[in-house]
Amino acid sequence: MSDILSSIQRYDSKEIVDLMEVNSDMQVEHFQLEGGFQYIKIYNFLLYPERLIDFLKGFPTEDRTKTILNGNKDNLCTDSTAPGFQQPIPHTYFNNTLSPILFNVLKHYHMLKFTYKMCNWNYYTNCCYPEMPAFNENYVPHTDPFSFAANIFLTDNEDSSTDLFKINIGDGKYIYRARDLSRHHKSWLEEKSRREIKNNVNEISKWKHWEGDDTYVRYHSIKADFNSVTMYKGDYYHALGYDAELNTDVRYSLVGVIN
Fold this sequence. Notes:
By secondary structure, this protein is of the alpha+beta class. It is about 20% helix and about 30% strand. The protein has helices at about 1-5, 15-20, 50-55, 65-70, 100-110, 180, 185-200, and strands at about 25-30, 40-45, 85-90, 120-130, 135, 150-155, 160-170, 175, 205, 215-225, 230-235, 240, 250-259. The radius of gyration is 19 Å and the shape is globular. The relative contact order is 0.22.
């Protein structure tokens, strides 16, 4: 019994608040790009990013790739299709720490209209690693099912980014976000068909750092700097930029999303 007790990481509430303390001299920048895309970049965000890493590492998770490669795909627990693997983290740990801080930054730059009490937050980690495979070509640009994402990057990776894409619908016209594609029926059907084919395979394949093609055109990259935050609306087309062949370091981030 004593071995169990000593092996469980336990914190009091002040310790949790302290390990997520932010820098008073953080640098915040707001950017506006083509297609109406806006994002916020915060530099030098956390006082103790290493402490937050140690805290997050204590949460177990299912590795989807491991499950599939071991022949157990019919018993998957996770519904995540993200690259690498994710650790779901209860949002209650962040109610008095990161959530109100991130909300206030978004509010300051007029990127959302609702109140803090109207927000439903979820948190998870993203972990990408050298030689990781792809699942159903999840390196291809996508949109998210939530309103806003805040990526807090906890590791230093030279070749790592959030890459932004627009869909080429012909005649020199491009679509930047999912809601606008529905107004172009032929292009919407083509994109719907691509998604259905890709998502129904359950296939493990070689990971690619997707740089675009005739359909998905990359127009900007946001570098995943150590101890920085990138915040943006999730319904714009984007992809995770990470070279699993050349990178020798893990890319580890905490993601807070507003539903």
